[in-house]
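For consistency, the fold was encoded as tokens, which produced the following:
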Amino acid sequence: MTDNGVQFDRRMLEALICPRTRTTLSYDADAQELVSKAAGLAYPIRNGIPVMLVDEARTLD
């Protein structure tokens, strides 16, 4: 569940790939992000919708 009660549909994860590396993503439920380990980026999920823009992604430490 997100902060505002909208939930991310985990089945969507099977269809999404990292726009930078074209690799699979993992879902971080606590942070509400889709993580690309290959790219070192975490894409935010806002209102249940993944924001798959490299410019919006957070760089992983």
Remarks:
- The first strand starts at residue 26 and ends at 28.
- The chain has a mean pLDDT of 89.
